[in-house]
Amino acid sequence: MNHDYTEEDLRIEAARQHNNLTTDHVYSVVGEEMEGSPVPSLTSDESTTHWDDLSPYDFDSAERGIDDLLSSAANTSAWAVEMGADEMNPSPHSLDIRSRSGPLYGRVHLAIHPSMPDSLHRKLLHDIGKIINENTLEQWDL
């Protein structure tokens, strides 16, 4: 069946809504979402500490910190929608582009298909890093 809209229209609208859901959040919902969720650094095979197990001071401080991070997060909504439409997943790894003195100039994030073997994923990251290092950093004298 033909529609008056295109697949691209759907993706653009999905990206707009994704962005709105992440940037137009309600502060109180942040705390509600934290309740019952484990604190990764305080969780092990033996025990789990949830955000709401923390002292009221630490919980409130963490809630403000998470709200600040959400408010300042980059709008990657279009990328996320395109990635999902192409059945890709974000790589847990990224490549940092730094000068020799250390400042971070950029970061490359990858999306990969779930069927990509881990060995190929690692080789891809290595090769992209090598290309960036040889062709960008040295030419720009960073």
Task: Flag low-confidence runs.
Answer: none
> Shape, please?
extended
What helical percentage do the residues reach?
40-55%
| Mean model confidence by pLDDT | 87
Question: How would you classify the helix and strand content by structural class?
Answer: alpha+beta
| Tally of helical segments | 5
Q: Find the count of extended strands (DSSP E, 2+ residues).
A: 2
Q: What is the terminal-to-terminal distance?
A: 54 Å
The proportion of strand residues reads 5-15%
Numbering strands along the chain, what is their spatial order in the largest sheet? 1-2
Order of helices and strands: HHHHEEH
Q: What does the main sheet amount to?
A: 2 strands, antiparallel
- Quickly count the domains: 2
**Rg estimate, integer Å:** 20 Å
Q: What topology does this entry show?
A:
Layout: H1 7-23, H2 27-34, H3 56-72, H4 77-85, E1 89-98, E2 104-112, H5 118-140
Antiparallel strand pairs: 1-2
Helix pairs in contact: 1-4, 2-3
